[in-house]
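Two folds, back to back.
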Amino acid sequence: MAQLRRRRLWQLQMLVALGFGTSLTLRLGTGQPINAPLMYLVMGGFCAASAWALHRRHVDLSAGFLLAGLTGALLGMVLLGEGLRDEAVAALPGVLVIAALLGNRRQLATLAAMMVLTVLLLGLAHVEGWYLSPVVAAQPTSAVEIGVILAVTAFGASLLAGDLASEVLLTQRARAEAERLAHYDPLTGLPNRRLALDRFEHAARGASRTGEKVALLLLDLDRFKDINDALGHAFGDRLLAAVAQQLPPVLRGSDTVARLGGDEFLVVLEGLPRSSDAGEVAAKLLDALAQLRCLGDTDIKIDGSVGIAIWPDDGGDFDTLHQKADIAMYRAKEAGRQCCRYFDAEMDRSVGDHLKLVAGLRHALARGELQLHYQPQFDLRSGRLIGAEALLRWESPTLGRVSPARFVPVAEQSGQIVEIGAWVLQEACR
């Protein structure tokens, strides 16, 4: 807004200088007498002062110089021309409108008072015979009418300028709120994923010049779903907000903690000399969580698991590092929770194997790759055959013979065990 105001003021300065310069040139070119050479000189001085103040970024002072010069020039034309019947009188309300849009309320009131007072004094001079226009004699009521017009114009322009300023302020606030919502989580007030991405890219650019490292730490609260189910989502939201207050004091001012959604928090650590520094910060974050013992009247115990991925060792972009930090975080949960794990290549291979098993198992039943082997059961006392145990086997054309110890847990995690169990029961009975 300030930049727009300076640009408009500069444009008005150019327009005023061009207008008075054109007027002076026409008078000199046509041989007309210059009735007020001092007026042009003073106007030029005010324009120069206004330009100087604008150059020094004194916007209010610049506007004051320009408006004072305009008002003085127009009133000078009125006095030296046709008095209250002069065409310059029609331009005075326009100056008040410009003052309302460019200047402040004090400048507007000052200009309006000066104009009304000058017009009334000029009208009184006409009535008393102190001053008579060389061209047209003004009616005594003209001064009052013009004064009323100027006063109404000043009042209306002030109201409109105030309304416009209010609308601009509301627009700026709405824009700032939209900007905040675009970059910050509304529940916790922490940066969101978009801002975390920007911070990471900035940190990576800086680290590429210094040879340092950047770490992504993915923190997930343990058993948060159980808390939500037991105490309600409103309590869960309060807990997330409390966690968001616990984490930032552990970090440096240059680091960023963001909420990605749910109970996941992402920490961007920049300028790390060693990868091991990230593990020390992760331990501090988990200690900060452990210090959160109560929320209101409710005693709680909240733990977390942290996965760590290092730039550029584990990847060169945000999405890759986020994915690998996520893998490491789940390994931390499998290791007993309330701990942290660095990503390593073995995790990547393990995840790849897991995905292959899930994808192959999804079609194994339809393709007839699953088989049942029957192991007999005997009564040891009598030696009599009393039954058989059905053992599930998987012969994959791509993975080969897959051990049940590998694919049965995968089937349970992916939910495919229900369909497979129904097939096993039906096949064994058949």
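---
second:
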Amino acid sequence: MITIDELKVQLDNKSRLLGVDMGSKRIGISICDENRKIATPLETIEFINIKYLCLKFKELILENNIKGIVFGLPLNMDGTEGPSAQSVKDKIKLIYKDLEIPTVLWDERLSTVGSFNLSSQLDVNVSKRVKNIDQNSATFILQGVLDYLDK
């Protein structure tokens, strides 16, 4: 894994990133445009096992010219790492080992709440918000990184 600033140096002008909200049952995926300005929801993957997840990531990387992956890190509200953060980090280590693509962690505190609130402002009905919450959370995470990279 690398830092966000190291990722910024490694990216060329026309490269895309994936954003990932790593849940225990569902993994939300988002993608950005080539100019890295706007993140959009892509899909939700059911977690079967790491091998299956790596295959899905490889497909997405090849199909979309992906040059890096941003994983949300579920920190506690006080900024410390709890069991969820450690679980995510353990999975990411296995994924990184298989994919060997620049990978960064991004504080995802309140990403689910933020994406849920944003979709409510867009007048999306509750059942659709719940259904898409994982990929919308991944979009919220990735957009935070894009905004940071744009500074």
